[in-house]
């Protein structure tokens, strides 16, 4: 039985903490128990969501098979993060030096950076602070726009919900992918995502505009991206001409036509299926391509970017 310790920092985000904790707890329900502890530098930890948490201030004895997780906290910039004592940072270093694993969610990577554990290692964090993390720790190899990284027992993940992906990855490493899949199903997680998948899907990347007509068309495409959706039908659905729809759509999405947007959705879903064992032909059919060669061309074009 391994010991999992969550280091709670003032301002901690509840989902950064609760997501991984739920995954490890669910694994225990399926016969893979872990001792879970919550440690802080003070006994009462305020959270970003105004629900105070009680933490122990003494650390349990940890060995090489044990894990320390640092959930993220609310901060507009990593430089404004809460103070973390030198003794706590030394404990993180010592645990890793003894063969233990250290992980972080979102801004929690800042704690690992202060402890010197990111130097020379691949790491990631929330997309809003990736560039700042790279500036603050130039020896770190910050990988942008991925869900999580694992490098020499230092595991880092992006923002908020990606902590669940990190936990499922660790459960798969410890107990096998079947157990991780069982935990994911029990948690009603749509799919266990690989670390290299993007933090923001195509359904989110092109939604920062304020054009209601385009949002309505995107709603249609998001829901039925695997079906033939012709421009005349889309234009009729939102009550504008084909020419007007194309003009509005390309302006709102930085140059994408509705067809290109639909292809982006199909490509992203196909890549997910392929990463989980599907063949290119099967993935192409699942996302609506009649000819797998179209999917191959889109993947090749993406690889050349």
Q: Secondary structure elements and their pairing?
A:
Elements: E1 2-8, H1 14-29, E2 34-40, E3 44-45, E4 53-54, E5 67-70, H2 86-97, E6 101-105, H3 109-114, E7 122-123, H4 130-136, E8 141-142, E9 148-151, E10 154-157, H5 162-175, H6 177-186, H7 202-205, H8 212-223, H9 231-238, H10 242-252, H11 258-275, H12 280-287, H13 292-304
Parallel strand pairs: 1-2, 1-5, 5-6, 6-10, 7-8
Antiparallel strand pairs: 3-4, 9-10
Helix pairs in contact: 1-5, 5-6, 8-9, 8-11, 9-10, 11-12, 12-13
Domain HTH araC/xylS-type: 215-305
InterPro entries: Class_I_gatase-like, DJ-1/PfpI, Homeodomain-like_sf, HTH_AraC, INH-QAR
Protein name: DJ-1/PfpI family protein
Tell me what you see in this structure.
With 305 residues, the protein is of the alpha/beta class. It folds into 2 domains: 2-186, Rossmann fold, CATH 3.40.50; 202-304, Homeodomain-like (Arc Repressor Mutant, subunit A), CATH 1.10.10. It has 13 helices and 10 strands. The chain has a 6-stranded mixed β-sheet. It has a two-stranded antiparallel ribbon with strand order 3-4. α11 packs across α12. The radius of gyration is 22 Å and the shape is elongated. The mean pLDDT is 91.
Pick out its properties:
about 300 residues; alpha/beta; Rossmann fold; Arc Repressor Mutant, subunit A; six-stranded mixed sheet; two-stranded antiparallel sheet; 13 helices; 10 strands; about 45% helix; elongated
Beta-sheet strand percentage? 5-15%
What is the CA-based Rg, rounded? 22 Å
Strand order in space, largest sheet: 2-1-5-6-10-9
Euclidean distance between termini CA atoms: 46 Å
CATH architecture group name of the largest domain: 3-Layer(aba) Sandwich
Q: What gross morphology would you assign? A: elongated
What is the domain total for the residues? 2
Q: What's the CATH topology name of the largest domain?
A: Rossmann fold
**Structural class of the secondary structure composition?**
alpha/beta
**Helix run count:** 13
Order of helices and strands: EHEEEEHEHEHEEEHHHHHHHHH
Pfam families: DJ-1_PfpI (PF01965), HTH_18 (PF12833)
Domain HTH araC/xylS-type: 215-305
Protein name: DJ-1/PfpI family protein
Keywords: Signal, Transcription, Transcription regulation
């Amino acid at each position: 039985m391994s010991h999992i310790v969550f280091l709670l920092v003032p301002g901690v985000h509840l989902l950064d903490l609760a997501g991984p904790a739920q995954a490890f707890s669910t694994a225990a329900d399926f016969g893979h128990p872990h001792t879970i502890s919550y440690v802080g530098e003070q006994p009462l930890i305020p959270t970003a969501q105004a629900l105070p948490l009680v933490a122990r201030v003494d650390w349990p004895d940890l060995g090489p098979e044990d894990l320390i997780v640092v959930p993220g906290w609310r901060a507009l910039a990593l430089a404004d993060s809460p103070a973390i004592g030198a003794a706590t940072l030394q404990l993180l270093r010592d645990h890793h030096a003894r063969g233990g694993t250290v992980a972080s969610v979102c801004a929690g990577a800042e704690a690992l950076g202060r402890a010197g554990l990111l130097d020379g290692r691949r790491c990631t964090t929330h997309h809003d602070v990736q560039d700042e993390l790279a500036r603050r720790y130039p020896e770190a190899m910050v990988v942008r726009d991925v869900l999580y990284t694992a490098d020499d027992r230092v595991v880092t993940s992006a923002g908020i919900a990606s902590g669940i992906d990190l936990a499922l990855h660790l459960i798969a490493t410890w107990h096998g992918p079947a157990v991780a899949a069982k935990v994911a199903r029990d948690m009603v997680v749509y799919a266990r995502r690989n670390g290299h998948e993007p933090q923001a899907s195509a359904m989110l990347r092109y939604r920062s505009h304020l054009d209601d007509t385009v949002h309505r068309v995107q709603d249609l495409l998001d829901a039925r991206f695997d079906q033939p959706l012709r421009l005349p039908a889309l234009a009729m659905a939102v009550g504008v001409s084909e020419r007007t729809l194309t003009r509005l759509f390309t302006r709102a999405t930085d140059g994408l036509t509705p067809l290109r947007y639909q292809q982006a959705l199909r490509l992203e879903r196909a890549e997910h299926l392929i990463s989980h064992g599907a063949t290119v032909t099967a993935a192409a059919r699942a996302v609506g391509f009649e000819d797998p060669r179209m999917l191959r061309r889109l993947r090749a074009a993406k690889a050349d970017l």
